[in-house]
């Protein structure tokens, strides 16, 4: 798949659904206790690592970014969709949000203590994932925690409509947890923990904790 095409399709799709998407996910943290617990654990890991800036990559409307700030984390958000960033700035004034792509992450080397990518890798094709993870490792400080959320399964489907019935044109990629873990190890991460959420639903999800570099304990 042409890099520019899938990126452009993803950007346009989420520009189209930004407001409706924000309305649907606004209460996700309060209604999903296991997700809330995972974010609290991630925040604790950031504090143990010494604190500092944390990037929420693929932040969408910024609901996770804002929750991390409530947990005392110096979080900021990055998203491919300018309309999503507009919504994030509207809903969370005073927080830092910027437009950017995880395939060419515009952050300095070792500039963040932690990195969150919550269901933002699901539109990245397999051949681009190693590039994305290499950027994640590059910008993370040694020992810094990484939290990934992704859909579990195999294969991809084309999403043509969503979030209020608006038109979309994005591939949704499902991955096996062992495959995601292998990609992370190849990029220089150490896997800390992994959990499966909503296993009895048609689309289970996984949360994977890792850190930059080898095991230190």
Could you characterize what this model shows?
The chain has a seven-stranded mixed sheet with strand order 3-2-1-4-5-9-8, with helices on both faces. α1 (3-25) packs parallel to α5 (82-91). Helices cover 38% and strands 27% of the residues. A hairpin with a 3-residue loop joins β6 (156-162) and β7 (166-173). The chain has 217 residues and is an alpha/beta fold. The model has no long low-confidence stretch (mean pLDDT 94). The chain has one domain (3-212): 3-Layer(aba) Sandwich (Rossmann fold). The protein has helices at 3-25, 28-31, 33-48, 63-70, 82-91, 129-139, 177-186, and strands at 53-57, 74-79, 97-99, 114-118, 145-151, 156-162, 166-173, 189-197, 205-212.
Q: Strand order within the widest sheet?
A: 3-2-1-4-5-9-8
- Which stretches of 5+ consecutive residues score pLDDT under 50? none
The gross shape turns out to be: globular
The number of domains is 1
Strand-pairing-aware structural class = alpha/beta
CATH-scheme architecture: 3-Layer(aba) Sandwich
User: Percent of residues in helical segments?
Assistant: 25-40%
| Total DSSP E strands | 9
| Range of strand content | 25-35%
Biggest β-sheet strands, sense, barrel: 7 strands, mixed
Distance between the termini: 41 Å
* Rg estimate, integer Å: 16 Å
CATH C-level class: Alpha Beta
């Amino acid at each position: 798949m042409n890099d520019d095409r899938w990126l452009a399709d993803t950007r346009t799709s989420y520009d189209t659904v930004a407001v409706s998407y924000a309305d649907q996910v606004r209460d996700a943290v309060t209604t999903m206790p296991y997700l809330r617990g995972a974010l609290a654990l991630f925040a604790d890991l950031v504090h143990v690592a010494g604190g500092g800036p944390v990037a929420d990559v693929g932040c969408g409307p910024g609901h996770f970014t804002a929750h991390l700030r409530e947990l005392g984390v110096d979080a900021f958000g990055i998203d491919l969709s300018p309309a999503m960033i507009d919504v994030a700035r509207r809903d969370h004034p005073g927080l830092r949000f910027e437009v950017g792509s995880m395939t060419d992450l515009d952050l300095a080397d070792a500039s963040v203590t932690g990195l969150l990518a919550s269901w933002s890798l699901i539109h990245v094709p397999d051949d681009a994932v190693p590039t994305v993870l290499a950027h994640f490792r590059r910008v993370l400080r040694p020992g810094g925690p990484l939290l990934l959320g992704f859909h579990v399964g195999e294969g991809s489907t084309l999403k043509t409509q969503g979030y209020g019935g608006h038109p979309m044109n994005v591939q949704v990629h499902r991955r096996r947890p062992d495959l995601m873990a292998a990609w992370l190890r190849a990029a220089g991460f150490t896997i800390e923990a992994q959990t499966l959420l909503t296993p009895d639903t048609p689309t289970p999800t996984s949360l994977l904790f890792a850190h930059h570099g080898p095991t230190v304990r």
